[in-house]
Write a structure and sequence with these properties.
Layout: E1 17-21, H1 27-39, E2 55-59, H2 70-73, E3 75-79, E4 86-90, H3 91-97, H4 99-108, H5 115-121, E5 124-126, E6 140-141
Parallel strand pairs: 1-2, 1-6, 2-5
Antiparallel strand pairs: 3-4
Helix pairs in contact: 1-4, 3-4
């Protein structure tokens, strides 16, 4: 009779900091592994309804790569909310203007589309170059293939 489902208390959760260098990493594989860390699936105390995950700092996102013909053909869509307001941006344009948004959009698609997912996305920090402002948190290097 004694097997009870373990549910962690909010005070027991420890959020660690990780740093990832995106140089020469494939975008989708990088995004899926970051999403798992943000959600906390790498921890044995994982609970799907709680914010168990860690903070992730990504540097050098301007050196990330995509496979196949995605560099030429991939497009991002957004809508202004007005009739006929569909705006499209190519991967190349996005990489030139806002390389951080490429990874944010990829990870966002892999997180739950609810309050928890929006809360998890706030723990992702993306920087185009090698510099970041989170040295005080002493992030550990996260090894992602």
């Amino acid at each position: 009779m004694g097997n009870k489902t373990f549910s962690p208390k909010a005070g027991d959760i420890e959020h660690q900091w990780h740093i990832v260098d995106a140089t020469d990493k494939v975008l989708g594989r990088l995004a899926s592994q970051i999403a798992q860390v943000l959600k906390g699936k790498h921890k044995p105390t994982y609970a799907p309804h709680m914010d168990m995950g860690d903070h992730v700092v990504v540097v050098n996102i301007d050196k990330v790569r995509v496979t196949g013909a995605k560099a030429d053909k991939k497009v991002y869509h957004r809508h202004t909310g007005y009739p006929g307001g569909l705006r499209t941006t190519t991967y190349e344009q996005m990489m030139d203007e806002h390389p951080e948004r490429i990874l944010k959009k990829a990870v966002w698609g892999m997180l739950p589309n609810n309050r928890l997912g929006r809360q998890l996305l706030k723990k992702l920090r993306v920087y185009a170059g090698p510099d970041h402002r989170h040295e005080a948190q002493q992030p550990q290097t996260l090894d992602i293939q």
